[in-house]
Amino acid sequence: MSEGKSTTGGGAVESVQQETRKFPPPAGFASGAHINSMEQYEQMHRESLEDPDKFWGEKAAELHWFKKWSRVLEWNLPDAKWFIGGKLNACYNCVDRQVDAGQGDKTAIVWEGEPIENGQPEVRNLTYNDLKRETSKFANVLKSLGVKKGDRVTLYMPMVPELAIAMLACARVGAAHSIIFGGFSASAIKDRVEDAHSKVIITADGGWRRGKIVPLKQNVDDALEMTDVVENVVTLKRTDNEVAMKAGRDQWWHELMDGASDDCPCEEMDSEDLLFILYTSGTTGKPKGIMHTTGGYMVYTYLTSKYVFDLHPENEDELYWCTADIGWITGHSYIIYGILPNAVPTLMYEGGPNFPAEDRFWDIVERHKVTKFYTAPTAIRAFMKWGEEHVKKHDLSSLQLLGTVGEPINPEAWMWYHRMIGSERCPIVDTWWQTETGGHMLTPLPGATTAVPGSATRPFFGADVAVVEKDGTEVGPNESGLLVIRKPWPSMLRGIYGDRQRFIDTYWSEIEGFYFAGDGARKDGDGNIWVTGRVDDVINVSGHRLGTAEVESALVSHPSVAEAAVVGIPHEIKGTGIAAFVTLKGGQEPTDALKKELIAHVGKEIGAIAKPDQLRFAEGVPKTRSGKIMRRLLRELATSGEVKGDTTTLEDFNVIAKLKGKDEG
Ligand code: ATP
Ligand code: MG
């Protein structure tokens, strides 16, 4: 049970969680930060909304442009154009610019492979010079395969430096990449290459994951049995497993690179030229091919990286690590495109967090002396479940800042992160954003914002985020509503590839004039925004709207619980009842007494209305491959005992099978 949390009684709840713990920026941190007071944040935020031309014009000038834009913004709802007429290249800003500035020998990427041999993992450091040479060579390889400006190239690769090289090489020649996370199956590849009309796939023989080889090339071969859009497959040798090579279609990366010239100037791209397509996680259904263009995306990811992670290239020790896979938007924006233009080294790790043991991440932090660390709530909950002993083995004193993204973070998970990883010394940035938003929309600024566990706090510059009713009016303090963005921002999606109508229906039809995020939220009396979960998941018990995050966080605040997922189920009297799926921490026994205790605990934390009607213990809950809880599957399961919805992005089918085998409580 958490101290400092008051409970609301019986039935009176639109909003539930009453988190009162507050964490102002640590004094030592604030003094050296880019943005170091709330006044400064508020003034800049106001300016960014009142005069976007001035604000973004100045910020965009921090990047390299071949030709300056003539106008900053053109807005015809739902279509935004940013930096009109401006010409730039994303790869140039990530790589060549640092070389031009005399920093070619500085480390750009620190990479660590998963396997450990003789007690040592393989580590590679790539400088900006290395990246310039390698991206130029691979850009020439792409050209030799007929890839031109405007084409789409699919990348299905492990987390190795060649993935970064391939994506930057696409940007270099002006081709859009479509990266498919290496955990996806053949049918997911087939769907995505067909949707993107991609004639070229870059892959690898395999990738390492928890000591096993993921057969990437084999999956590509299987996918290409089902479609014939792909003409060329380039395969990197990584794991040396046996693969089939089809004559006329398949070639080896190293053979093509051997003969390639390292001279390939960056293509001058229009600010609004497509940089990439990326499919969403698929938490709510069939993934959408989100389109991002060059200028606005680069400016926004560069600036959010600089301010939210408070990056300091002049600090020689600075080493930033985002644990996401590059196959997700978090990896695109905050391993590569936002970080490299800041001239701060970015760490890439190939494998699993528990290989060879549950302390792998902390071992990496200690050995490389990571300063800024960005991960997901699902990982933090796993660390909590695995136990503190794995963390305590390591010296984490190099860490200066922690971040989280992907789902609402349960306040108890936030506290654990703060205490165990941050030694109560590092600010935590809880960043709310989406594939569609391209970059952080709600986030604390680490030197300015007082953090509150579980809240993503305030909008970033240029983000006009609000919590509204269906008619677009703002809800009152602490009332739940819909999360919207009312003004265009530079890195907003430019559409869903090949599906204009779905773009309009999904984001622009729910609330007139505003971008609708699909998430529910509330704003507290201090102006902090709390994302309470997906609107589709909101539970309406006897007319009270409960956010899934709030009920789950109440469960996670019990010392025995590692993770919880709650969903609404039909209930004769209340209309909707609550079913909870609970994963216990290591060493805890799933007894009936504990079940009763947990139900009572929710009643105490939130109020009787939020008490689960069913509670089941589960070894795991279904998640997307990016680690988000898929409540729609649990809802189906709790309601009908069956799962029929789209499961193509489900991480582990066994979880559903195991849950089906369980009795209801
Ligand atoms: P799909 O749109 O296909 O259902 P998805 O929404 O999971 O998949 P992403 O773009 O990867 O795809 O995830 C964005 C969503 O993740 C947000 O809309 C929100 O629900 C959740 N999210 C991300 N970060 C946070 C955060 N810090 N706090 C709360 N929720 C978050
Ligand atoms: Mg989404």
UniProtKB/TrEMBL annotation:
The protein's role, per its UniProt record: Catalyzes the conversion of acetate into acetyl-CoA (AcCoA), an essential intermediate at the junction of anabolic and catabolic pathways. AcsA undergoes a two-step reaction. In the first half reaction, AcsA combines acetate with ATP to form acetyl-adenylate (AcAMP) intermediate. In the second half reaction, it can then transfer the acetyl group from AcAMP to the sulfhydryl group of CoA, forming the product AcCoA.
Matching NCBIfam families: Ac_CoA_lig_AcsA (TIGR02188), PRK00174.1 (NF001208)
Organism for this UniProt entry: Natronomicrosphaera hydrolytica
A GO MF term: acetate-CoA ligase activity
Binding site for ATP: G406, E407, P408, D430, T431, W432, W433, Q434, T435, D519, R534, R545
Gene: acs
Catalytic activity from the UniProt record: acetate + ATP + CoA = acetyl-CoA + AMP + diphosphate
One Pfam family recorded for the sequence: ACAS_N
Limits of the AMP-dependent synthetase/ligase domain: 101-496
Ligand binding (CoA): R209, R210, G211, K212, T330, N354, S542
Protein name per Swiss-Prot or TrEMBL: Acetyl-coenzyme A synthetase
